[in-house]
Write a structure and sequence with these properties.
mainly alpha; two-stranded antiparallel sheet; 2 strands; Farnesyl Diphosphate Synthase; single chain
């Protein structure tokens, strides 16, 4: 298996799905559709929909029922980035090598584009009922996971604590809480929804959540490392932003080498757990490794 080639093939497939589910640019409000597309189609790793699809395939899932959820999770992730970049939050002018949504469309439309993506994500996920009405039970369960992991007990909850504690010295326990929710929750959502829609049982679904929890935490720690060691040209966004915003990170807590050791430990644990479901590794294992040992 040529991992890089397979990875790029999957990105192309995901981007076709995203285009398929974007709203038509029409009506008096079409500027918001333009801003949504600008934000959603800005590139990126497409990590969450990819993890969702691979988890779905891992448990024998087939068919298009997964596609609206793949689009929805990427819309939710994108809205969070649009709002993160706003002047009231991180005040970033560039992401993925191009100007952020609020810079291009104005702060007001930046706020509304994020709102629109979040709301439209649930409109999109509900289209699964039209695709497979006979699977309404699984779809309902998947929607419950999607809503919970995106909300105040998931991503938003983590973001709230992150913003509230900016400039304060955090304990390791609080830092783990922020990372587990702010970054890890949507990764958990992706892998758990993939399992649920494929018909996995409660035990396997929870195991996928645990795997995702470890990978999500390792992924965010690697972000901390890259913010210190990489460049704006490589990352496509400003570096040293954590220092600028006076944020406690794993690097400030455990140091650079200690953070790297934590990334390795968490990734190895997640991979071992995955092998209890898929002993021969495969693309999903390589994907998990690539996410946390990345350079951008």
């Amino acid at each position: 298996m040529n991992f890089k080639e397979e990875y790029q093939n999957r990105i192309r497939s995901i981007e076709n799905i995203l285009k398929k589910y974007l709203p038509c640019q029409e009506g008096y409000q079409k500027i918001i559709m333009e801003a949504m597309e600008y934000s959603l189609m800005a590139g990126g790793k497409r990590l969450r929909p990819m993890l969702m699809k691979e988890s779905y395939a891992l448990f024998g899932g087939e068919g298009e029922i997964i596609e609206p959820f793949m689009a929805a999770i990427e819309m939710i992730h994108t809205y969070s980035l649009v709002h993160d970049d706003l002047p009231a939050m991180d005040n970033d002018e560039y992401r993925r090598g191009r100007k952020t949504t609020h810079v291009v469309y104005g702060e007001d439309m930046g706020i509304l584009a994020g709102d629109a993506l979040l709301n439209y994500a649930f409109e999109t996920a509900c289209r699964a009922f039209d695709i497979a009405p006979e699977e309404s039970g699984r779809i309902g369960q998947a929607l419950k996971i999607l809503a919970g992991k995106a909300g105040i007990y998931g991503m938003i909850g983590g973001q709230v604590v992150d913003v509230k504690e900016s400039g304060h010295i955090l304990t390791g326990e609080m830092l783990d809480f922020i990372y587990r929710l702010k970054t890890g929750a949507l990764i958990e959502s992706s892998m758990m929804i993939g399992a649920v829609l494929a018909g996995a049982g409660a035990e396997d679904t929870e195991k996928m959540g645990q795997i995702a929890r470890g990978i999500g935490l390792a992924f965010q720690i690697q972000d901390d490392i890259l913010d210190v060691t990489s460049t704006t040209e490589v990352l496509g966004k400003p570096v040293h932003s954590d220092e600028k915003n006076e944020k406690t990170t794993y690097v400030t807590w455990k140091g650079l080498e200690g953070s790297k050791q934590e990334v390795s430990r968490m990734t190895e644990e997640a991979v071992r757990a995955l092998r209890t479901i898929q002993p021969d590794g495969g693309f999903l294992e390589e994907l998990l490794k690539s996410l946390v040992y990345r350079e951008k």
